[in-house]
Amino acid sequence: MLKIEEIWKTFNPGTVNEKTALSGLTLELKEGDFVTVIGGNGAGKSTMLNAVAGVWKVDEGKIFIDGVNVTGLAEHKRAAYLGRVFQDPMTGTAANMQIQENLALALRRGKLRGLRIGITREEREEYQEKLKILELGLEDRMTSKVGLLSGGQRQALTLLMATLKKPKLLLLDEHTAALDPKTAAKVLEATDRIVGKDNLTTLMITHNMKDAIIHGNRLIMMHGGRIIYDVSGDEKKKLKVADLLAKFEQASGGEFANDRMMLT
């Protein structure tokens, strides 16, 4: 479902601020893979997601989504294949609109819109059923303004909106990092339910090593713009945080340097 072939990305080339963020990165995801991504500061995690989403144009290499070469596609055209949730819970929803209106916008993305009634009874019933999967009681607050919701509720709603049209690939860029631990756990539980229900191919960046181990069927560790560790199946299930730290030191030749991840 996703194939990344030898992609390179260097920022500010030829200047004192030159930084190679991706160094011949190669990665392949099968349909239904739920891959968690960890790595130290500057490992290239977010740059990889932005390259896949089309935010950054890669210097070399190719990117395929469901067999389609999207390397040259602009970000807005590539969005037809993707669902994405960002770190900031305030991003991805319209605060001054109702919950049901936000869902209507998400479901009608890419479609022609005429001068007809905003939300039909059938659509309202569909949204109520969709909201139930979040287990936050939002199905009973359909007319509430999104700006009145908590950060966790907004992030869960954003996740639902990003997956309403079953994207080819779901990108989660530290989507629980700005939430408190209890709320983050609830959003991750909702993530597992949504991804599992629709068998969505997913890439999730996280700074939490425990979350990286618990969620998904595969884990990759990045360093220096490339993948230094790739584990899945039973081997992944048996991992402990200490194992990941040891693997990092073994593969990179240095200690893991990410205070936020170490303190989690």
Could you explain how this protein is built, in words?
There is one protein chain. 35% of the residues lie in helices and 23% in strands. The chain has 264 residues and is α/β, with parallel strands linked by helices. α3 (99-107) runs parallel beside α5 and α5 (151-163) runs parallel beside α6. The protein is globular, with a radius of gyration of 19 Å. The model has no long low-confidence stretch (mean pLDDT 90).
Strand order of the largest sheet: 6-7-8-3-9-10
Stretches where pLDDT is under 50 for at least 5 consecutive residues are: none
Q: Provide mean pLDDT, rounded.
A: 90
Largest sheet report:
6 strands, mixed
- Say which CATH homologous superfamily is assigned: P-loop containing nucleotide triphosphate hydrolases
Q: Give the SSE order as H and E letters.
A: EEEHEEHEHHHEHEHEEHHH
Give the domain tally.
Answer: 1
Beta-strand content estimate: 15-25%
Q: Provide the gyration radius in Å.
A: 19 Å
User: Class in CATH?
Assistant: Alpha Beta
Q: Which architecture would the CATH scheme give at its second level? A: 3-Layer(aba) Sandwich
Residues in helices, as a percent range: 25-40%
How far is it from the N-terminal to the C-terminal residue, by CA?
31 Å
CATH topology: Rossmann fold
Number of helices: 10
Number of strands: 10
Structural class given helices, strands, pairing? alpha/beta
* Rough outline: globular
